[in-house]
Please model this.
Amino acid sequence: MADKIKLTLDGKEVEADRGETIWQVAQRHGIKIPHLCWNPAPGYRADGNCRACMVEIEGERVLAASCQRKAAEGMKVETASERARKAREMVFELLLADQPAKEESHDPESKFWNWVSAMGVEPRSRFPRAERAPADYSHAAIAVNLDACINCGLCVRACREVQMNDVIGMAYRGHGAKVVFDFDRTMGESTCVACGECVQACPTGALMEANLIDKASGKRVAFEDRTVDTLCPYCGVGCQTKVHVRDDKILYVDGRNGPANNNRLCVKGRFGFDYIHHPDRLTTPLIRRDGVPKTECSQQKSREDIRRVFREATWEEALDRVAKSLKRIRDSHGGSALGGLGSAKGSNEEAYLFQKLVRQGFGTNNVDHCTRLCHASSVAALMEGVNSGAVTAPFTAALDSDCIIVIGARPAENHPVAATYLKQAAKKGAKLIVMDPRGQTQGIARYASHVLNFKPAQDVALLNAMIHTIIEEGLVDIQYVQAHTSNFEALKAKVRAFSPEKMEQNCGIPADTIREVARLYARSERSIIFWGMGVSQHTHGTDNSRCLIALALITGQIGRKGTGLHPLRGQNNVQGASDAGLIPMVYPDYISVEDEATREKYEKLWNTRLDPNKGLTVIEIMHAIHEGMVKAMYIMGENPAMSDPNVRQAREALCHLEMLVVQDIFMTETAWQADVVLPASAHAEKWGTFTNTNRQVQLGRPVLKPPGQARQDWQIIQDIAQRMGLDWNYKQVSDIYAEMASVMPSLNNITWDRLVREGAVTYPCDAPDKPGNEIIFANSFPTKTGRAKIVPAGLLAPHELPDESYPLVLSTGRLLEHWHTGAMTRRATTLDYLEPEAIVGLNLREMGRYGINPGDMVKVATRRGEIVLKARADRDVPEGMVFIPFCFAEAPANTLTNPQLDPMGKIPEFKFCACRIEKQEMASAAE
Amino acid sequence: MNEMSKRVRGRDAGPGEPKRAIHPGAGRRKAVPFNKGRVLAPGEMEAVSAIVGPPPYRRDLLIEYLHQIQDREHCLPASHLHGLAELMRIPMAEVYEVATFYAHFDVVADGEPRPPAITIRVCDSLSCMLAGAEQLIAALEAEKLDGVRIVRAPCLGSCATAPAAEVGHRHVDNATVDTLRLLSQAADTEPEIPVYQELYAYTAEGGYRILRECLSGKLAIDGVIKTLSDGALRGLGGAGFPTGRKWSLVRAEKGPRLMAVNGDEGEPGTFKDRYYLEHRPHQFLEGMLIAAWAVEAEQVFVYIRDEYPAVLAILRAEINKLEKAGFTNHTKVTVRRGAGAYICGEESAMIESIEGKRGLPRQRPPYVAQVGIFDRPTLVNNVETLYWVPEILAKGPEWFAAQGKNGGKGLRSYSVSGRVAKPGVILAPAGSTASDLIELAGGMAAGHKLKGYLPGGASGGILPASMADLPLDFGQLEKHGCFVGSHAVVILSDHDDMKAVALNLMRFFEDESCGQCTPCRNGTEKAVKLMQAPSWDYALLGDLSQVMRDASICGLGQAASNPLACVIKHFPEDLP
Model:
């Protein structure tokens, strides 16, 4: 009761929560008060600067900004007194004076103009006009027209407080005050990462999506005719989106208030949507012309090239050919001669159907997807330790943490919206410890309390030294260890030899620092660990994860608010695709294919005998092709010809197949080797559920129809299944979901209808009317004993160490603007504009040693191959290291990478191999 | 073209071979060979750390660091700002917005020429304008002095010796082209330290006795506060809030508490704080230390405007002596230097500035007594207010309270300037009238006849000669649309054009508006434009005055239209 107060609002006594502003109280009572600088959206603080929301409070000398002023007991407020109304109108008249006229305005549908109409204010001003800043169209994605700026500072709050990308400022003062980017550079020359939060926040159209504007007139020319609520197609964060469409083309995208993004998006999600309209889209089934040999080539093919190699076919012919070939090979060589690669980009329903087809129809467990290349080792270690491959807490749990470790992950580039929560947590006071051989100066490091740029591949040395410190200094949560874990003694024995003082040499981090962060992690009330591919993509990736799991277990930093283990999942549905069984060793929900009871369950359900043996993983399948064991493959939405390590070998393998069916939306490097290419649907063209890194199952809705004859992926899978003699008859996506949910206890209480209603539900979920459990393992682990198993790890050198011939360390990864193999993002106009060419990141000093200047062409070679690409002086790359994003088809980083696998996770060592560089004089001259 | 390159070109362009790598991208653009944004060149961070010293770097010291760079380089080059941002690990934009907010920082973009090493600032505020500042500026500009730039500056606190100017940090009274030329050519830019009462002299006359009695427990906090209340001491920065009550309010807030001294005396026409600080700094310092004791402030920030370099030097020297003498053991005293922003005299803007940010006034509530520096309860007092504390405690409340007239209580230091014979700080009873003050200032200047006066600096409005007998005290002038504020009385005569006076004042507000809220940011700018017009739109100016008064965030915007409204009311004959 004490938290309620009473006040008088326009003569009526009303009740308010303590802390509520006058504007909020008025809003609840249906009273509309104009507002410009106040954005009633999550993460935005009221600033009270525009003065459009002034109200009169009895007994006060001046008016008050209702957005900012808290309601108080006994307060008497007039929201529309003559004086308040007059003040608001004058504020608008002052602002109108310097605005372009409505008919000339950049966005006549902006909040500003909407209020002008709603208030009935004359859309003109008696005041003389001030000189305004010229237009800035230097940025590919965002048009800046500060003549419409009203200095409300929403873009500053968007950039600095909501997304914390820290580019926009309000510089100068008085009427000269101006929105600036960095040191008042053009937006295009600034450090802007184009998250577009400012565009979404701007109430006047001063900051707008560049593609909506006619640059000659500065006027908005494109308006949507409809809007669809759906999801972002890119990373594992799982942002909810609002997609605005005109004439069946996506115009622009806004963030929606989803549990993982609170309206935020990044450059990919907001501006990377138009790949679906790219002329390269596949629109007809294609069949390889007779006699055209399969060649490997990463060069993008023109339409003429494609026509030379493939001919168009009807769906009937293409599907018949696929089914016939697959059946023939299966019947003559057995199911194990077939294999399938599904996709983490597709929906849960597609993943489920795909693995079902391979298991039921192909008769093999040779089904895998790119999780193998991302977090397979993390999942292996998690399954071994806690018998669950998913995160124990969402990334938003960081907001409740006191200590956050981010190791081997670059969230500002790869999970940008997740990074915003980490930065906010750190700004609120949590200690943020960033461990990465590369710097993150333009990422989260600004907010870090500790930055540990350790030597590449020395994760175990660093982490074991932390565990050593925790044990030696008595910081172990003994009660927790005794109640909830097993095998602690083995860990204790193992790490005895790993004192920080000894490991300092190995990992390059001073012993004191190791001890300090170990203490910080152990002693903090709530600590949480995030990790990414820097941890997993090593031949000792499983060991790295084991150490992280051990850290959490011995300190009891798991299962509580603000604690846990969170491997940041890479693709939008890598969690869901894994859950749905797109893995060669397990059925849906991670039940081993060797588990007889489960196999019998599925045999009964699917009415067929199932392969009792584990199938082959992504890389193993390629080897098996070379060995003649696997003869046909069905690849849906995957691009191993770019993503596999030592990619030449993978491409050769693909060329050897008797039948390669590729189902995709573009002629990918993989599809080039196909016998049949089936045109599929893009994310924005389909219904489906997707499970993000937080275990949130979310519903994606179709925005558009697939182009030409392209079909829904689930229908194509069903078409093949039916032609292979399976009795499938799904009518719609929800039918598939229903079947999937019926065999996956993890989806209990999450029905299709509920998802349609709620948009997102976290699993596991205890009841149809309760939210899901965000934090898991509060009381026990889903192991047989209920205990988590601590598994100690030893030091394992990377497989290929630098030597005289190959003196540098090559690490691969991603860029903010490009995603996975670039098939989608490089065909997105804005993303292509921002990162158009293959680059190699090098330390400026290292470049000096080789006589390389920024912008020079550089040859990078390893024992497996060489590529030539442009040198970028990258502050974040340490000396001795070479960093190459793997998204560039013209210089595929995976030509160079080492295919050696982690023995348990079967993940290749993308993050470490020996290489050499040299300046490529001629190519540079020919540029 | 050598053989190799021909071969490569030949290969690249060979039949059937693509000319260049073909990839899914459009191929229309080239990749940028650096990280996004301005490229931090090698050595830029080191250059800055050589100036500002080794880490750790504190966010609240940003303005101090900027001063160090500006003092060394005579400007803030982008390279140094970038280096500083990286050292401090704060956004470039955050450094830039602070650096460009304050008038005394000269930001120089990459590739832009640096400003000359010597800057002459000429005051163009009202008292100096009356004394011919415009002619001085024009004459100086015509000189085209080598290595010197001429900058207009708002009030330098030398209104009694107008026109005033500054060569670097050296103040020049009754400035002429000749003295300014000489000083700038001699590069004589260091402040002249006036003769002031030093610590030994102050203690010799019994100074710090009261503080000792406070610290020793001889005087009780409640008693001290009661004495000040009984003595009717009020905030003399301009608001007139009862000092004793303010101390009680701050004490009532949960600690730890802080204190700030508002020494950002920028109200045009006001120079009394400067007078006390340059003559009797210890009486103020004793008052300050008593206040810190009374509210148990862990730290005291003495915020002094950058226009008072001599004061800064005096305070640094004398506080150092006090620390050595053990007078500051109950708190920690830190001098902070403003950087050229009138708005930082507004207490919450000053707090922002102390925190190293732009001086944007905060919205109230919460009041700074509740949420002040670093969000802690903070006592903010003006210099002169604190100056009277030891004397009232020594001589008793009656002594002070009994001094007023016309219903006023206490003594006031009126800064009197303009058209009087002997301008200066005039100590007179609270409630004195303009006529009293003119008399005390030796009458009107020769040949001048009283036309009107500003009772409280630029923001206090303008009153006509017919109202020269109003008591100039808190609460007395509001009914006339004016206030006494910092007691800066500028006397205007029949030689003065009231339109020009009002325009000068409005221009000042336009320059000094922080830019945060619409009514003030746009209102001051529109008002100047409207007031420059050949004929005035009175209805519009009236509407504008009203919205500025009603809807601005702070006193600057709320009061900025006072002179405008006053000239319309009292001097219509001077207006178009």
